[in-house]
Amino acid sequence: MKRLKDFDYHEPATLDEAVVILEEAPGDARVLAGGTDLIVDMKIERLQPSTVVNLKRIPGLTGVDLVAGGIRIGALTKVTDVEESVIVQSRYEALGTAASLLASPPVRALATIGGNVGRASPASDLGPALIVSSAVAHITGVTGSREELVEDLYAGPGETTLAPSDIITHFFLPDPPTGYGSAHVKLGKRGSGTDIAMAGTSASVVVADDGAVAECKVALASLGPIPMRASHCENALRGRVPDADVLAAAAAAAAEDASPIGDMRASADYRTTLARVLTLRALRGAVAAAGAEVGVR
User: What is the C-alpha R_g of the chain?
Assistant: First the structure.
């Protein structure tokens, strides 16, 4: 096994201590949460940070809890705990499903929700599900604390809007409104112990009393440089009764939103087709979860 290159290692006991260490460290410093990605990247020398800051001793960064107006999920909460949370499963179906489909059970037992978001992979399982759940990231850094929608955290493949000293402490998901439903669908290709999405779609809808979709969010994975909203798809659905024709048109519009690349797992054309197929499945699932009947005008 290849030996890791030397680096400074810290285990701060408080957030303030961690922020100071990151602020004073070189720009290549990395935080350690679950370590499922960071350790692998260091072993293959994709990353060679001079400083690693382990966040596991800091209290208050784990747990799925009901709070006023929604739920709070600590950034160091294991993906397994998100997957198995009754609170998540009963309120945010897309996130519960996405957590259950991330990699393998051993990886889910180590990986954290904050680490998955911070990695900013275009193929992220949790990113799209958090986006359609209107999740807000709470961040602490050298300039203080701030809040940012998860969808605004992604700046590019492997890049976020976080400053070097910023630490995601938790995510807040607002209570779903009446008539809300969500779903997540993914097609992966297994290899090297992980099931990376060739394409994935999360969708959420709010169905009004008149049967029309009052609000909707659709987010795509592995179909662009970042987990991203599918605005054409959303516009094709919003304000309409989600019958079979409307859902098919909205799903077709998702293919217009997609801008995939081709790689060893799938061609760009195949991914574009998947954008339509998987979005249709996700929309049907979200509408059904909202208690509406799919295919009825």
Answer: 19
